[in-house]
Amino acid sequence: MKFAIPCMLIAVATLSGCASILNDKTQQVNVSTSSGSAIKGTVNGVPFTAPGVVTVTRENKNKIFVTDTEGCARETVAEKSPDPKFFINILSGGFFGSTTDYSTEKMWKYNENVVISCKK
After folding, report:
1. C-alpha dihedral over 95, 99, 101, 104, to 10 degrees?
2. Strands (E) located in 1-120
3. Per the omega criterion (within 30 degrees of 0), is the bond before 51 cis?
4. Taking residues 72-101, what's their average pLDDT?
5. Contact by Cβ (8 Å): 39, 69
6. Comparing 96 with 62, which gets the higher pLDDT?
7. Is residue 107 a contact partner of residue 17, using CB atoms and an 8 Å limit?
8. What is the pTM of this model?
9. For the chain, what is the total number of helices (H) and then of strands (E)?
10. Under a CB-based contact definition with an 8 Å cutoff, are residues 93 and 18 in contact?
11. 3-class SS of residue 20
12. Which of 15, 18, 19, 33 meets the CB 3.0–4.6 Å disulfide criterion with 107?
């Protein structure tokens, strides 16, 4: 009986994902233009205005910022990368924690700043 509680705590710790617990399902990204002018566009079908802060959903794919503004790049890609918390979890939580992070897709992050190229 005295080993039951410590064993349960160890099981919970190894089955939980660090990034899954610490990261939100969304991330805030600062979007600006190289010209400083205001533009409108979409990311995953959701409208945004730049310069400004855009909320994107964390997932296992790159985010593509699309704009029809004349003189600006049609598409700008924000590439995904694993959040450093994921690697810490591999060391501390092992296989089960890292698979939890991967399955919730909260292990992914994007650059905090995205600049859409526009002519001045």
Report:
1. -160
2. 26-33, 39-43, 46-50, 52-57, 63-67, 75-78, 81-82, 108-109, 113-116
3. yes
4. 78
5. yes
6. 62
7. yes
8. 0.75
9. 3, 9
10. yes
11. helix
12. 19
